[in-house]
Amino acid sequence: MTEREYNECVKTYADNVYRFIVKNLKHEEDARDVVQTAFEKMWRNRDEIDPVKCKSYLFTVAYHQMIDHIRKVKRVQLKEEFNDQVKVQDRPANNLKKVLEEALSRLSETQRSLVLLKDYEGYSYDEIGKITGLSESQVKVYLHRARVQLKNYLVKIENVI
Amino acid sequence: MKLNRHNYEEYFILYLDNELGSEDRREVELFAEENPDLKAELDILLQSKLTPDTGITFTNKESLLARDSSFINLNNYEEWLLSYIDNELTATETKDVERFITEHPAVKTELGLLQKTKLPFEAITFLVKNLCTAKKKKQRLWFFIGADGL
């Protein structure tokens, strides 16, 4: 990958990968750090990267970087998530987008990542498996569970409203 | 694909995830039409599909770039102008340079000067015959020097 190809990758995919990470972490500065680290790694390893596969390389590195980050701040984050859930119960959502955001936040980190990779980036189960290090069948099972959870949440909220 | 009321959910999700071929997709659609109660379920599943929030962007992308060389600007335009006059840019880059020149008249003047540094074609013929004659003369000269030395 040449310098120009690297820069092209920045211009084309920086927003996509940032969107994926910030939706997971729900923290802009941390998401920026993860994206920056992912691009730094891509720059360091540019000689071994096929420019055609730069997007999946970037998402793979960013995903694992994000998982490391989550592990490091796990205890703090659990506390924040608990608070968020209390807020959600206090104030029921009134539009689909918001309900979906809330439903998404209730998924596990892995499930959330799989849904985002599928819905935001349109990756196949096979490609998601390569990015996350899961097998294709694991992706299928986890994603299916996530879909059912999202659907059940929508149904539950519709019943409440 | 054997789609029925016991296994429909899996196929609905595969349909939503775009993991079915066109024939199987059609089968799911037919099944949903024939089972209106389950079609409602498919509709809810389809609603649960997220759409990318394009409002979320990475601000200051330039900070991620390897160098600022991928954009022509007032700090690096000379290198771009040189590549421009040497025809070393892609069509898009050429357009970028031309737009930049229009926006910066001083740079246009500089481009004019740089273009003058391009050497015009000059027809120079390599005269092989003359070179051979010169060589022979030289050899003869050495011969005479040798004779004098004796």
Q: Give the oligomeric state of the chains in this entry, treating copies of one chain as homo and distinct chains as hetero.
A: heterodimer
Global mean pLDDT of chain B: 82
Number of strands of chain B: 0
Low confidence ranges of chain A? 85-93
Largest sheet features of chain B: none
The ordered H/E elements of chain B are HHHHHHH
Spatial gap, N to C terminus of chain A:
53 Å
Q: Report the β-strand fraction of chain B as a percent range.
A: under 5%
* SS elements, strand count of chain A: 0
Proportion of residues in helical segments of chain B: 55-70%
- First-to-last CA distance of chain B: 107 Å
Q: What is the structural class of chain A?
A: mainly alpha
**Helix run count of chain B:** 7
Major sheet attributes of chain A? none
Write the layout of secondary structure elements.
The complex is a heterodimer of chains A (161) and B (150).
Chain A lengths: L2 H23 L2 H17 L9 H19 L1 H17 L5 H10 L3 H11 L5 H8 L3 H25 L1
Helix pairs in contact in A: 1-2, 1-3, 2-3, 3-7, 5-8, 6-8, 7-8
Chain B lengths: L7 H9 L5 H13 L1 H12 L29 H9 L5 H13 L1 H12 L11 H22 L1
Helix pairs in contact in B: 1-3, 2-3, 4-6, 5-6
Could you name the key traits of this structure?
heterodimer, A: 161 residues, mainly alpha, 8 helices, globular, B: 150 residues, 0% strand, elongated
